[in-house]
Amino acid sequence: MEIMKRTIDCGALRKADAGKTVILNGWVHRKRDHGGISFINLRDRYGVTQVVADTNAGGTGLDAAILAELRNEYCIAVEGTVRQRPDNMVNPDMPTGEIEVAAAKIVVLSKSEVLPFQIDDESDAKEETRLKYRYLDLRSAGMQNRIRLRNEVSFAVREWMIARGFYEIETPTFIKSTPEGARDYLVPSRLYPGKFYALPQSPQLYKQILMVSGFDKYFQIARCYRDEDARGDRQPEFTQIDIEMSFVGRDDILAMAEGLMGHVFKKTLGVDLPAHFTRLSYEEAQEKYGSDKPDLRFNMPLQDFGPFVAAGSFQAFKDALANGEAEKQAASAKGITIAGGGVKALVVKAAAMNAANNGAAYSRKQIEELEAQAKIYKAKGMAWMKVTAPQGGGASALEGGVAKFFADNAANIITGLGAKPGDLILIVADSKRSIANIALGAVRSKLGKDLGLYTNAVGKPGTAAQNPQRFEFAWIVDFPLFEFNKEENRWEAAHHMFSYPQEKYHNILESDPGAVKGDLYDLVLNGYELASGSIRIHDPDLQKRIFKIVGFDPADAEKKFGFLTEAFKYGAPPHGGIAPGLDRLVMLMAGETSIKEVIAFPKNSFAVSPMDDSPGDVDQKQLDELHLRVVQPKE
Q1: How far apart are CA 481 and CA 24, in angstroms?
Q2: Is the confidence at residue 450, as pLDDT, over 50?
């Protein structure tokens, strides 16, 4: 086999190159035969060039047998002359569409068997097939572009961070197992039988020690590992942009992250972000959007229906508020702060329903589908009413659903909620205000998708009205520091045990943990949590108080985190950090909904790699060296 090394790539040739002799290397993307003349679209990472092979032309030296053999995904080398296409043959959809290469010689570098699926811009093969033949899937233009984007984002991160005095420092991959939420992946030690390393769920403890070490500004594009049950769009191994800074407060971290995101989006997508992002407290986000990761690409806030309950006669709403108040008082007597009951409403605009529903309002069946969504999030049900147009010069009214229970107060409800004729009012009530918020927030999210509201203009999903380049960031701040675990009757850290409680709550840490807010912050983008961080505890005595509140035994704390608390005894600086998820960031920038689309070799939803069949068995010799025995689970 003769290897002809390329002199130029398949995406570089233009009209100005006409007359040049070139060598191209790549894959046969498409081949069309027309009576002795073959048109070959030759593809590499950089683009596609049309090659014309004319076996009727004299003196080309083309081998007709080789040409006849060529199939899609044969890897070939082509030598030929660049020529300008006739005006009526120009392909404006291809960067190289003004030229073609007249082949003088074609060499097959390697052959391809029949493909399990066609390689197009985007594959329509099933996910499992795409992952089994990932090397073929990665040849598609879509995957090539997304991996390119990931590379550019990583470079832009390093460029911005290093220019601002951050050091990129690697932290260990083999570490001590510490409780951080998910299960650790464990690595047995051959040299120390019965002992294990853990793969890091994050570099959290090490980056804090780097601050104690005086490095001041650290970052790392870090690989992280969590042994979680198969669910959603999770991967057992993932990548985060890990950042830590010394002598800073919350606003310093937020400003830094805003600058980083602004640079990354401008550099890679040409998108200008606002200098500062919207800020919402955790409570405000839950009250307005029913979520601590609200999608702000559309304006449909949750509203408080509580003020209208007393004047109505719907007993379920009254019971929710009364029972919630009783639960609130009982919790207060135990020193636990809770919100009580809630009745929340959502106004769905007629224009949005009509645009996405072929000009029709929502049917009873569609409303029941929304109710089913609310019930997934523990709602007992969902009430509804429709606003009707005025009749004979009168006022708008309510009809359908629970409207009859509020007929006497319809005008106040319509005005108070800002509803208009044709609008649909959805209501969820519960003795736990958080359930009413979260359940109706889930309905809001479904409506955003169903009605195509993730847009600059109202339109159906997939239509031109949608704008995939719209990015709405928000900071969620003032999170609760603790959560109460009813099953275990104890307080737990809402984020992790090293998050700093806001100063104004230090005197009530032990007496009212439920009221304590932490210096915690999440960065949200288009309804996804993109990053999470906090100001850290650097005072050993304060750290001991937190351990005690969450019931973490001092001996266990010393065993698990002794190396960190020991370091804090030697002049630890105030410090804080944040860790944007690189996979999710690139996913959102690429307009995708799964991080598998931006990872070169992801696992499937069961943490299995169909391509290399991992996890797999190991032989007995390896187990013996590690002093391990495999015990099969019981049937």
Answers
A1: 60
A2: yes
- Please list the alpha-helical segments (H only) found in 379-507: 410-417, 433-450
Pairing of strands 217-225, 167-168: parallel
- Mean pLDDT along residues 299-307: 96
Quick one: pLDDT at residue 355?
Answer: 87
Using CA atoms, how far residue 214 sits from 162, 542, 561, in Å, is: 17, 21, 20
Mean pLDDT of 9-29: 97
Those residues with Cβ within 8 angstroms of residue 199's Cβ, 6 or more apart along the chain or in another chain: 173, 174, 175, 184, 185, 186, 187, 225
At 60 the pLDDT is 65
Q: Which two tokens stand for residue 502?
A: 């806001």
Name the DSSP class of 375.
H
Task: Spell out where 293-432 has E strands.
Answer: 303-304, 342-348, 383-388, 397-399, 424-430
Residue/partner pairs of 386-394 with CB below 8 Å, 24 or more apart: 386/361, 386/422, 386/423, 386/424, 386/425, 387/414, 387/419, 387/420, 387/421, 387/422, 387/423, 387/424, 387/425, 388/421, 389/421, 389/422, 390/421
Average pLDDT, the chain: 92
Please tell me the distance from the alpha carbon of residue 373 to that of residue 350, in angstroms, as a whole number.
21
For the segment 231-237, the average pLDDT, to the nearest whole number, is: 83
Burial of 364 (0-12, 13-18, 19+ CB in 10 A): exposed
| Residue from 316, 318, 291, 314 nearest 302 by CA | 291
C-alpha span between 573 and 197 (Å, rounded) = 29
State pLDDT tens for residues 544-564. 899 999 988 878 888 888 888
Give me the residue label for tokens 């992280």: 224
Q: How confident is the model at residue 456 (pLDDT cuts 50, 70, 90)?
A: very low
Query: What is the DSSP pairing of strand 575-580 with strand 99-110?
Result: unpaired
- Residues 165, 158: Cα–Cα separation, whole Å: 11
pLDDT one-digit tens code per residue, 138-193: 999 999 999 999 999 999 999 999 999 999 999 999 999 886 668 999 999 999 99
Here the tokens at position 123 are 């594959």
The pTM assigned to this predicted structure is: 0.92
Beta bridge partners of 167: 218
